[in-house]
Amino acid sequence: MSKQSCRSDFISDGSSSDGEDIPQIRSLWQRVAQKKLGDSGIVFTQSMGTLGGLSVDNGYAESRIMEIQGPETCQATVSVEGNKKKKRSREEIEENRKLAQTKKEERERKKQEKEAEKDMRRLEREAKKTYSLNSCLQFIKVLVDTRIVNSCGLGTAIFKVCEELGVACETQELTVPFTVVWKRKVTSANFGDDMKVETVLTEIEENEVITIIPVADFVQMVETFKQRQRGLDPGGCVNLRDYVTHVQSVLVGKNITVVVPGMEQYFRDLKTQTNREFKKAVQPDTGKRVKKLGPLTSVSRLDVEEALTDLLLQTDSTTFMLESPEDVADLVRRFSKAVAERPAKKDRYDPIFSFHEEGAGGVKVDKNGNGLLKVWKHQLLQFKNVSPDVAQAIIAEYPSPYLLRQAYSQCASEKEAISLLENIVVRRGAGVLETTRRVGKELARRFYILFTCEDPDFVIK
Q1: Where in this chain does the entry annotate a coiled-coil region (predicted)?
Q2: CATH architecture of 144-179+203-282+298-349
């Protein structure tokens, strides 16, 4: 029997009752198909099919078709049902479209948030420059009232020092006459509707204010104060305290500094006038020309000191007596520099605790606990009249604050706890010069209060 007829007999014999031969036939045809199609590259699916009444897989059926029709014809008839795409419904297409749109919007949102964070970091860096010591002067502007420039003749000197310092200086008519104020440029950020960061540059007014009182007005205010001290009514005139109180009511929350230029020149002119009047009274007129001085209100240095003391006590304001325009301009320069650098230096001088803490060169403690005994010793040395020898003697008995506190809690009475450290021996010196003493009742009492008192405001005396 030929090979092809044998295969035909096997296929046509679909009514064979011998069920055990089916796996053998299937295995046989699979091996034959794999041998003949090994170089063809065709891959068959393993779904079940029926060929000639025999239930076999597609690999077997297609190998048989290839055997009968030839490999060229078989290549055209081979199809893989598993690779067919399932047709999507309209709802699935719409859902996928919405999902893709949501993902796109999420990507855009994250991109905008990233750009906004980048802009915020940039603005934070720019805002720090406003308060840094190196560039803070660039953001300060000095505002000088126009009456200071026109009446007092101080404008040229003030503009000169501001230019040397590197700060902007402008003249304008301010709310209170004869004042100097400062403004700082501050950069802030706002989020727009499109999540973009918008830079906003604003000016804030500082709390420092200099008010300049011309010497003639100042003398009149002192004279009014002197008359009121004597119980006289000066008739509607204001004294120094009234004027500064009015300025504080207009500029609420500001620190007022009073500047009086030319007071020493006033005292010299007053002395010259007094001498002339005395000479005129005792000597005849010689006919010489002398420079005439206007009528001066007479106040003494004592009157000025009393008025300034009253001003300081009642209004808490500072007064500077200056002479030349250069002195006034130098004061404006120093104030400008201090106002500009104050935010940068504020945290440096603000105390962290309610007591004076130790400097940066304190005791360092590593991760292994080395240095804790030194910290404990420094804590004991904070007390008055506690020497290093006394602290060392207490540390020898109680190496940590916890052990000392535990010993206090184990005492039967308060009297016993107070005297716990009283009899600890303190050794001083070494060798033949060694002396001993005890901690004593007073120190023992203070240490007991420190570790047992629950009132944070209690003062240990």
Answers
A1: none
A2: 3-Layer(aba) Sandwich (3.40)
